[in-house]
Design brief:
This protein is mostly helical and 313 residues long. The chain is built from 14 helices and 2 strands.
Length: 313
């Protein structure tokens, strides 16, 4: 039975991925949920069934859509799910405690950072380097998207180049951050559904306990210095790594928010608008700053201790 469920999960993931070939608007939703059935298989059955589901999804996609499509689903869906499932189901210590929420966030941030670093190293020898390759890619995609409207636009080539100049500087960061966000959302949805039906292998991590090691702040600071001081591909890569690394502190900021409202019965009236406001973009900066302050000055401990101390007085 577990084998059949794992294979079924892999086939569903492949169908979600291949739905983009239909060209329908609904496919845009399904393609963003490719990781969901893989997470469902892994977080309910274990790492080996997740591997079977991933292999099924890869082979089915390659058979129906070609080797390039198979490689794409392998790298964008199967590998990250396997890494996170293996980390999530890892027990630590003799007491059998599950891996912490912080370790999952570190794994998630590492997944988002790896493509940027790999692309920089692979494209360093190309004409124009990493940044030039990204600019050419963005310009090519824009040219394809605007091909139908080219006849109605004055000087379409120049306009495409101008738009590419605006997008290319932070395109890797935007692509990696959105990919990481969808991985996280699919993982949370899968764990929530499995917990609802009591078929989860581990309890859901408590976001209020999320913490990152101090060395992570040093990595972020080093990337910031490199982004300002370095030129060429190193500076370009560092500037695109910064937003991806900052995702870790955004999540710590959310942990602070959850801690602050935990004891209040109407907390949903705070949390729902707060999560919705994240779509505006700038609240993410506030959350990241809050997460950094918490790491170095123990903001959550102060918030948690405040009301109790007032009560004692």
């Amino acid at each position: 039975m577990p084998l059949a469920i794992a294979i079924a999960g892999g086939l569903v993931a492949a169908l979600f991925y291949l739905s983009v070939l239909t060209g329908s608007l609904g496919a845009l939703i399904l393609v963003n949920l490719v990781q969901l059935p893989l997470f469902l298989a892994g977080l309910s059955l274990g790492t080996k069934p997740a591997l079977i589901a991933g292999a099924t999804a890869t082979l089915a996609t390659a058979a129906a859509g070609g080797l390039l499509a198979g490689a794409a689903i392998l790298l964008t869906a199967v590998v990250p799910v396997l890494c996170l499932v293996a980390q999530a189901l890892r027990s630590t210590g003799k007491d059998g405690a599950w891996s912490s929420a912080g370790s999952l966030v570190l794994c998630l941030v590492a997944l988002g950072s790896a493509p940027i670093i790999a692309a920089m190293l692979l494209l360093a020898g190309e004409a124009g380097g990493f940044r030039g390759a990204v600019h050419d890619f963005v310009a090519g995609q824009l040219g394809t998207l605007l091909a139908d409207a080219a006849s109605t636009l004055p000087d379409p080539a120049q306009r495409t180049a101008v738009v590419a100049d605006l997008i290319a500087p932070f395109f890797p960061a935007a692509a990696a951050a959105s990919w990481v966000a969808m991985i996280a959302i699919n993982g949370v949805l899968a764990q929530g559904a499995l917990t609802r039906f009591a078929v989860n292998r581990r309890p859901a991590p408590d976001i209020a306990t999320l913490a990152l090691p101090r060395w992570f702040g040093i990595v972020l600071a080093a990337a910031a210095v490199l982004a300002v001081a370095a030129s060429g591909d190193w500076g370009y890569a560092a500037r695109n790594l910064l937003p991806v690394l900052a995702i870790g502190y955004v999540l710590v900021g959310l942990a602070v928010l959850h801690t602050a409202v935990r004891r209040y019965p109407g907390r949903l009236f705070v949390l729902v608008p707060a999560y919705a406001a994240m779509l505006l973009g700038w609240p993410l900066l506030l959350l990241a700053a809050c997460g950094m302050i918490d790491q170095w000055f123990g903001l959550r401990h102060r918030i948690a201790a405040g009301p109790s101390r007032q009560g004692e007085e």
